[in-house]
Request: fold
Amino acid sequence: MKMKKYNAPSIAEAMKAIRADLGEDAVILNSKVVVTKKFFGLVKKKSFEVVAGIDQVEKKQAMPSLPDLNSSSPQPASPKPVLAATEEAATINRELIKEITDLKTMMEKLQRQSVQSQYPDELLSFIDYLRSQELSIELITAISDELFSHFKGRTEEIAFDDMRIVTEGYLRDRLRGVEIGGLSYDKKYINVLGPTGVGKTTTIAKMAARAVLEKKKKIGFITTDTYRIAAIEQLKTYAGLLQAPVEIVYSAEDYKQAIEKLDYLDLIFIDTAGRNYKEAKYVNDLAQLIDFGELAESFLVVSLTAKERDVESIIEQFENLPIKKFIFTKLDETNSIGTIFNLMIKYNKGLAYYTDGQEVPEDIEPGDTGKLLELLFQGESK
Ligand SMILES: Nc1nc2c(ncn2[C@@H]2O[C@H](COP(=O)(O)OP(=O)(O)OP(=O)(O)O)[C@@H](O)[C@H]2O)c(=O)[nH]1
Ligand SMILES: [Mg+2]
Reply:
């Protein structure tokens, strides 16, 4: 802070001098009356001493932005030395920041180039193929690293099938912890959950038909989808074809009674209403209505035509329910099956079935890692 003392015959005159000297922003720090005695104390003269100051450094630091170096408008006319020093520092800072940013961008580019330039062309086009199958970035990066370290130093051309074998090995490893395969037939209740229109009822009909035709099981159905008459009729049609009973439940109490009534059967398929399961409320309603205990096996049905990010938010809503496996539907309507791998690995859930058409009971396949890997590579051009 710059401080200065002023002596004037009146306060008004002192203020005038301060304003002229330090400007409008000056502040009064102290003032007092000074009496001077002349001629052996016989004449007394009264004046005012005022100490004023101006905070130049702080004023400059409080400026909202750095000076615009590109601006052609002149800088303030009376830069004090402090101001000039700050401006110089600001200029240096700006230049430094720009240089560091440029350097960082250049380093990143070089790093990317140097990693990719070490990838042979065939490896790059293999990675492009995985991308076309919509595997997640996380998986593609990990597979690229795996391939790169596997084929490092190789001078001759790498065959597509060799890269495929390494990739399959990697994906098999990542899927090791999850259960893959159809109905275990050792659980009595099969809960089938999922959002609207993904193919729950159709898939139940397909699973039920297999259980009857291939495994000779006695089966029955329960539906909690009481919102649409058509939904009940749809299930009754399939049940009629398989000569199996259907119970319609509206409450947890109904559910208990239905279970008791159908207790003589081997397997009971529980069809549920499709809901917007991005809302937690519907998941809670479901948890209140049906049994997720020891005797139940629960599947979350996911349509492969849905956006992966939307599917993820639905899966996350179901996280507290004991669902170990997905059923993926509508494989016939999509060209990429990366989503199956992405979701199983990300959510650590297995695969019961995938379905690939509207025909009941034909269009369903039990989960099988080998078949999934075959599907992943069936679109390869080589
Ligand atoms: N292309 C194709 N369509 C399918 C598949 N599975 C089911 N669908 C069709 O998807 C539509 C909806 O099937 P539903 O079984 O009624 O679906 P849902 O999940 O029970 O529907 P809501 O009960 O309304 O929630 C029907 O037209 C089915 O034929 C499949 O694998 N591929
Ligand atoms: Mg349905």
The radius of gyration is 39 Å.
